[in-house]
Amino acid sequence: MNAVASSLRIALVGNPNCGKTALFNRLTGAHQKVANYAGVTVERKEGRFVAPSGRVLQLLDLPGAYSLDAASPDEAITRDICEGRHPGEPAPDLIVCVADATNLRLHLRFVLELKRLGRPMVLALNMIDAADKRGIRIDTAALESALGMPVVETIAVKQGGAAALVARLDAMPAPSTAPVGAPGGAMLFPPEAKSIAPSGAPTEAEENDLHAQVRALLAATVTMPRATSATDDAIDAVVLHPVAGLAILATVMFLIFQAVFSWAAPLQDAVSAAVAASGAWVGGLLASMPLLQSLVTDGIFAGLGTVLEFLPQILVLFLFILVLEESGYLPRAAFLLDKLMFKAGLTGRSFIPLLSSFACAIPGIMATRSIADPRDRLTTILVAPLMTCSARLPVYTLLIAAFIPRHDVLGVFNLQGVVLFTLYFAGIASALAVAWVIKRLRSDKSDHALIMELPSYRMPNPRDVLWGLWERAKIFLRRVGGILLALTVLLWFLSSFPAPPDGATQPPIDYSFAGHIGKWMAVVFAPIGFNWQICVALIPGLAAREVAVSSLATVYALSAADGADAALGTAIAAQWSLATALSLLAWYVFAPQCMSTLAVIRRETNSWRNVWIAAGYLFGLAYLASFVTYQVARAFA
Amino acid sequence: MSASLLQVFVIAAIVAWSAWFALHRLLPVTTRRLQARLLAPLDRAGMPAWLRTLGARLQPKATTGASCGDGCSSCGGCSAAQARPADAPMPLVFRPRPKAH
């Protein structure tokens, strides 16, 4: 039997946050994102692995679902694939239903619903170690017998934790060529289950029947000292308190932004020194070729080097985000903010997509697939770009470091950290305000009901956190070495050509393409305090926000008199007013300086109208906020 | 070749690569189509075998992850090798709510 002929297509299915993606990663060696909350996976992922016998097993990781009666777009993917109705996707040969062993009361209902499809199934009782710790005893053999399907215990986050599952899958017979579901088809187990309607949705009577079966199964096979974890309950008593909980949330967020400045500073200085030394060395090697030397030193090293300095700050921010994601705290934060978010026109379900947007608006917008109500989903998509993505961090920290002194506030806080916190808060507050306006404009009012699973608290695994940081560093470096490098080179070209005319009195860049473009744009942006150099940086900054920093660095390096080689922060601090710097910060809170985000809005909403609405209101708000900030700052200066 | 001529060639090559790369990231569908159209003549009958091989190799590859072509490079989805196109987008569909009685 060759590997291809005997290969199995296996779908990992289960309730959200039961460890499907962790199991997928364990089996295939992939590094798909995992976190301790529901709704991380919103797309199907495909991988393969070779079993000990040499057999190739194809694995599909599907979004979590509570039922085949899909309530949201991500659940619809899972339903369609399980039922063999997904376009271009054959039905899986085998369903591995992953269930959280600590929460079988909830998860077994879906197991029973899937069983009614009549497809071959294996039940993986995941997090069996956590169940053990809580004193939950599961009679696996009895459960296997009662369900009529193989049941294996797994610990997806532990090395070798999926060995029993692999052995079981390896022993599975090859799928038959007969169509699945047909009489005598590819059934690996006796088809004792009854078929269900094509929609997959159980009727009310079936639903009651399922719950009764779950209760019977639990009574016969599971011993549970208590329904919930005592530790979780004790922590939740404080963390979910209406007053103390909000205070804790605010403190956590505040400390994160303090740390971004104070922890990253030494590393940032080291990166800055390394980039400067490398630039000087490479520039020295190219002394005989002045034009190429300018490209390398003024363009690549000045531009990209300045952006690279912000890597430590981005990693510090993500260290906190990853720890919070792993700990299980984030759904609690969603719960705490639900009332406020509802008043503003959002729901608690919007919290996770909006939180994802702090890394990048694109996965955040895609994560809205877990929101069932299309109106709530559209509102969340439209406000997601207001969350402060990590690409804004280099712009913010550059301007804050250049213009805001490192004073202590109340003897404890760093003023720079306070300003950064304020900028993040401004993004959140404006998102809530915009959502409120959309709610007022909407004729159709939603009902409000947040049903969200609160996962057990978990100590973050240092290995996973380090891996997450490494992934973030790779993503950042790939951007620096890819799109940022390309745009910096192009900006250098536009800033260096054509050469100045004979008898020119201004720096050469003033006569370049970029100089001309910047000066035309400056007319429009003068009321908000932007000079032509900032205007030039805004154009490539549309492709990626950080490019604005590298572009400013290149423009100021080319504008500097010969030999005057100042760091970008020093150069702008000397040439800009505080009002201009604050105005640019206000611009970056709102402006949709990211074409990729607009492209994803188009794709996810299937509408150019929504793209124009998003771009229009964001640019409008950006201009208005910058105008007010600039004029007020000038008045008080 | 003089040093000044060499530097002009090197700079031209770097700028051309940068322009292509930026276009490819920002307008992925257009550049893919353009790339395929430009390379199509190489893969015609009657062309030397090595040119046909070269043309086939330079043809744009199928996209992989769902976010490929968005230009974000943020989620890492682009690097996950997949054998089939990504999921179709999930467009918003609005239906009027039933009136409350």
Number of strands of chain A: 10
Q: How far do the termini of chain B sit from each other?
A: 86 Å
Low-pLDDT residue intervals, each spanning 5 or more residues of chain A: 177-199
Name of the CATH homologous superfamily of the domain at 8-223 in chain A = P-loop containing nucleotide triphosphate hydrolases
**Series of H and E elements of chain B:** HHH
Q: What class do helices, strands and sheet pairing of chain A give?
A: alpha/beta
Our measurement of the CA-to-CA distance between the termini of chain A, rounded to an integer number of angstroms, reads 81 Å
Q: Rough shape of chain A?
A: elongated
For the largest interface, the chains and their residue counts are: A-B, 57 and 42 residues
What's the alpha carbon Rg of chain A, rounded to whole Å? Answer: 28 Å
Strand order of the largest sheet of chain A: 2-3-1-4-5-7
What percentage of amino acids of chain B are in beta strands? under 5%
Q: Taking all residues together, what is the mean pLDDT of chain B?
A: 71
Secondary-structure arrangement, i.e. CATH architecture of the domain at 8-223 in chain A: 3-Layer(aba) Sandwich
Specify the biggest β-sheet of chain A. Answer: 6 strands, mixed
Descriptive overview:
- The complex is a heterodimer of chains A (637) and B (101).
- Chain A has 637 residues and is α/β, with parallel strands linked by helices.
- Helices cover 57% and strands 7% of the residues of chain A.
- Chain A contains 26 helices and 10 strands.
- In chain A, the strands form 3 sheets. Chain A has a 6-stranded mixed beta sheet with strand order 2-3-1-4-5-7, sandwiched between helices.
- The longest helix of chain A is centred in the last third of the chain and has 35 residues, at 462-496.
- Chain A is elongated and about 90 Å long.
- Chain B is an all-alpha fold.
- Helices cover 46% and strands 0% of the residues of chain B.
- Chain B is built from 3 helices and no strands.
- The model of chain B is unreliable at 64-86 (pLDDT under 50).
- The interface between A and B is large, with 57 and 42 residues.
